[in-house]
Amino acid sequence: MARILVIEDDPATAQEILAELAGHGHEVTHAAEGLGALDRATREHFDAITLDRMLPGLDGLTLVAQLRERRITVPVLMISALSDVDERIAGLRAGGDDYLVKPFAAQEMAMRIEVLLRRQQEPSEDALLRVGGIEVDLIRRQVRVDSEAVRLLHMEFRLLEFLARHPGEVMSRRIIFEQVWGYYFDPGANLINVHIARLRKKLDRPGLPSAIVTLKGEGYRLDAI
Amino acid sequence: MLSDRLRFRDIRNTSTFRLTAVLGLVFALGVTVLLGLIYLLSARELSVRSDHVIRQVSARMMAAPADRLPAQMEIELVRGSKGLNYYALISASGERVGGNFDPPGPLRLDRLVDIPALPSQHGPLRILATRTRSGETVVVGRDISPILDLRARVLGILIGSGIAIVLSMGTAGVALSLRPLRRVRDLQRASHEIAAGRLSVRMPIAGRGDELDLFAGTVNVMVEEVGRVVAQVKGVTDAIAHDLRTPLTHVRVHLHRMQLLPDPKVTAIATAAIADLDEVLERFAALLRIAELEAGGRRAGFRSVDPVALVARAVDLYEPLAEERGIALIARPGSAPPIRGDEQLLFEAVSNLLDNAIKFTPAGGTIVAQAFEAAESVRIEVRDDGPGVPADQRQAVLRRFHRGADTDGTEGSGLGLSVVTAIVHLHNFQLDLADSQPGLSATLVCSIE
């Protein structure tokens, strides 16, 4: 469970975010106005913040910049109706950690919060990620399935590493594409699917269900099997 | 394609140049006639004067009595101006008995004759020989080299000024043609850009109110109107896409909740509905993305991009998808200098080209992607051996929602190439579709950094 501050002036959107994050078992706090939100974020401790780009009082960009100026490192998910890549760059440059464009699926927003929270929990790079029978050695860049070495291509390794950092969590194809490949357009469902299928083939063990689960219309999840 | 260099052929063909040339010709003709006339008249005048002097001297000599002729000749010699005059007295037996030169014989009497110069003795002369009653011949000559000199000089001036006139007219013609030609160039360039779909471009107006300005103004009004209509149509579609996205996202949330219900029948229906809805949302997202790209102004994010690495990464990304369809996707090694652009967007454009090629290439086919340098540009080419696109449809496939005639069952929104077009426009690059026999080659023609 994490403490999350939701800064959003539109009541309907705020309600949606609050409900989704509460549904994931987080403790949520709502602020609808920029200056008050900055004040709260400075005084109290939060594990993550969702921040609307356009706010009354103080706009989102200034707010996150002010937070960083005060050396508050809480991860911030910027949410904006402005989808242009320039806007994304501006948001990230000001100190945001991720950028989500309105309208969004609440699940997608929750996934991104989970990614940010996880990143926060692992400040030091783990040398070894272990999910069920799968071991990902980040230093030697080797993968073992049931102690048996599996050879992965560069991007396959990065894909598995990303999923292994978020075991049991559903990751949408857009999040995967952004985090693994670093591009911010929608690559279409098929493309990520074939990459997952290739990886899955290399990781599959006879007699056991696949460790990578596809949830149609939602994304992919690495389970401990 | 317009080149920036103006060639003489282009200049020669302009109406200004032709007009200047004709005017110059007429002017040159007039000047030639005038100078010729001056030359002829002055040459004649000088000759007439010189002849007059000769006749006068000759008459004076003839008036002297025969025995005083040598003395008279001495007087004339002393009086003679600046050594221009020459005299000879020849006895009846044909010997020279007086004077300062030997006239070449035989002499024609009472006629003015030109004789050539005799080096170290005298210059070219005009002479008049007359016979006295006592049978001697008196020859009076006058050096005409100053006259010849003057004639040569006038002739030189005539030819020189003729050449100068022709040259200056030519230069004036080029200079005068250059500006209108440049303006026509600019107009042409602008019209090409407008034809390529950049409706924000306007024909340049010089502000002189001349016929080119009038023409440009009229075209601008037309473009304005076309732009307004296009924007209106696009604005409506974009507005629909934008306004429907929020409620549709909410519908998706509800469907997702249904998906989680225990009833497997409900779950199945909800899952199918979500898949369909996602397709709609994707299409809307693509539409809005194009609108956003067309809104433009992203040059701030431009930096140096390595086209070879870009192609390699894109091929890496799409290779598994091609393999799944039984298509060989190959990145052919090449070398190309860096280009200036937005890496994210260029990657998206190349991805869309690859995605498209994979969609329309049958199993067993081959797609080759390559970045190379050619004709002062970098080309990123995706070449497939699929069915290709007929030449008359190549413009159409770049339009939004266009899908080929026999693409039934092929997924996609028909927006992929529109996204590429928008990205290409934003960079001022070019997208060429050509027959690669068989198949289609799509090429991004990028200017070198």
Notes on the protein architecture:
The complex is a heterodimer of chains A (225) and B (449). Chain A is an alpha/beta fold. Chain A contains eight helices and eleven strands. Chain A has a five-stranded parallel β-sheet with strand order 2-1-3-4-5, sandwiched between helices. Chain A has a four-stranded antiparallel β-sheet with strand order 6-7-8-9, with helices on one face. In chain A, strands 10-11 form a two-stranded antiparallel ribbon. Chain A folds into two domains: 3-121, Rossmann fold (3-Layer(aba) Sandwich), CATH 3.40.50; 128-222, Arc Repressor Mutant, subunit A, CATH 1.10.10. Chain A is elongated, with a radius of gyration of 19 Å. The longest helix of chain A has 16 residues, at 106-121. In chain A, helix 1 links the parallel strand 1 (3-7) and strand 2 (27-31). By secondary structure, chain B is of the alpha+beta class. Chain B folds into three domains: 1-184, Beta-Lactamase; 211-295, Orthogonal Bundle (Helix Hairpins); 299-447, Histidine kinase-like ATPase, C-terminal domain (Heat Shock Protein 90). Helix content of chain B is 55%, strand content 15%. Chain B is built from nine helices and twelve strands. Chain B has helices spanning 8-12, 15-63, 69-79, 145-195, 211-259, 264-295, 307-324, 343-360, 416-427, and strands at 85-90, 96-99, 112-115, 125-131, 137-143, 303-305, 328-331, 339-341, 366-374, 377-384, 430-435, 440-447. In chain B, helix 5 (211-259) runs antiparallel to helix 6 (264-295). Chains A and B meet through helix 4 and helix 8 of A and helix 5, helix 6, helix 7 and helix 8 of B.
